[in-house]
């Protein structure tokens, strides 16, 4: 994962100048309240390699909305901007129907903090350490626009109700997510970037995304001349993802496609419960497990904490703390590979607490 370390350096997220590390904790809804404490424990387990660490508990989510009338309190945003160096977000139970006054707090946070890059590594763990992973890719998802600008309206026309949504793709957002994707690809052995789009149908919006990403190398004075560029239509990309995942290295996509592709890719490595992500900008980073709030298992103590623990490691790595991140990742891999201490989503019978405890023991054994 050295590519994230390089990006951290390029973004001037300096570790030497940081005298303390304040982490905002936003469990939000459902199993977020069960897995974010596991991520917190992982950070505490490696705290000897970090500046003095403190945590700030913050509110957001559907439950917060039902109690207060707002899903993202202004105080949460203010605290993140003024007091925190980074954050961990759990999961949100956004309703599938329209609710007056409600909008997704995670989407809002990405915009408020300008966290324009959602970076989602998908890597399998082999029981035999000598064998390479069957899946090893990164989905780089533009995080601020596309259909997620939530510009929708419902009208009545000749044939009844008509619903329309405005999709926003800008050159600026596409260019900067393209640059992140090229930086990631350049730092990996294969140096391969696949641009995901549907410009054969959406020739204007996806066409702009495709052209903007392709324009990054010519504007970079040869910095990315060693990166091979490929393209794939989003529908065939999903098909090939399941049939031959080994063809992909780094995939860059607009917001909606990136969301779908990364969730689908989780099936290749066992569960959404093991896929981490970070929401990254130039001045802030927020870890976020890819899974949702899982209301069907919330409160039962069986949620998989691995994605949150991995997200904490990914966040630390992006901040420049490679060694403690390595220790967390090794402990996770050493937990998954034997297949003995697993939650139900991976075919096991261990509880959230048991898996978390096992990972913590393996972290501590490295000191």
TrEMBL record:
The keyword Transit peptide does not apply. Residues 22-359 form the Isopropylmalate dehydrogenase-like domain. The keyword Magnesium applies. It comes from the Eukaryota. InterPro entries: IsoCit/isopropylmalate_DH_CS, IsoPropMal-DH-like_dom. Keywords: Magnesium. PROSITE patterns: IDH_IMDH (PS00470). SMART domains: Iso_dh. Pfam families: Iso_dh. Belongs to the isocitrate and isopropylmalate dehydrogenases family. This is Isopropylmalate dehydrogenase-like domain-containing protein. It comes from Mycena chlorophos.
């Amino acid at each position: 994962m050295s590519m994230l370390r390089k990006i951290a350096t390029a973004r001037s997220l300096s570790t030497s100048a940081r005298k303390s590390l304040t982490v905002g904790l936003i469990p939000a809804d459902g199993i977020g309240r069960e897995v974010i404490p596991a991520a917190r424990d992982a950070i505490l387990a490696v705290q000897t390699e970090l500046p003095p660490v403190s945590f700030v508990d913050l509110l957001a989510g559907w439950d917060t909305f039902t109690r207060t009338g707002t899903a993202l309190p202004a105080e949460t945003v203010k605290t993140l901007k003024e007091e925190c160096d980074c954050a961990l977000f759990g999961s949100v139970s956004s309703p599938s129907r329209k609710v007056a006054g409600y909008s997704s707090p995670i989407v809002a946070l990405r915009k408020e903090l300008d966290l324009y890059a959602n970076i989602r590594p998908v890597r399998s763990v082999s029981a035999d350490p000598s064998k390479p992973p069957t899946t090893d890719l990164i989905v780089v998802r533009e995080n601020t626009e596309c259909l997620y600008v939530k510009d929708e309206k419902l009208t009545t026309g000749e044939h009844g109700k008509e619903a329309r949504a405005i999709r926003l793709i800008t050159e600026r957002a596409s260019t900067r997510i393209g640059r992140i994707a090229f930086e990631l690809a350049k730092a990996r052995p294969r140096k391969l970037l696949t641009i995901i789009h549907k410009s054969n149908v959406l020739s204007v919006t996806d066409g702009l995304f495709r052209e903007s990403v392709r324009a990054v190398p010519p504007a970079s004075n040869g910095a990315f001349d060693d990166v091979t560029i490929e393209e794939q239509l989003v529908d065939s990309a999903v098909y090939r993802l399941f049939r031959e995942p080994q063809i992909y290295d780094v995939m860059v996509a607009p917001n909606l496609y990136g969301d779908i592709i990364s969730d689908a890719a989780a099936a290749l490595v066992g569960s959404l419960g093991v896929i981490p992500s970070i929401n990254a900008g130039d001045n802030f980073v927020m870890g976020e497990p890819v899974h949702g709030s899982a209301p069907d298992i919330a409160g039962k103590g069986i949620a998989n904490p691995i994605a949150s623990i991995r997200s904490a490691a990914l966040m630390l790595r992006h901040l420049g703390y490679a060694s403690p991140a390595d220790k967390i990742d090794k402990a996770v891999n050493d937990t998954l590979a034997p297949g003995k201490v697993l939650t139900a989503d991976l075919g096991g019978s261990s509880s959230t607490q048991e898996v978390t405890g096992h990972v913590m023991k393996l972290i501590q054994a490295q000191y």
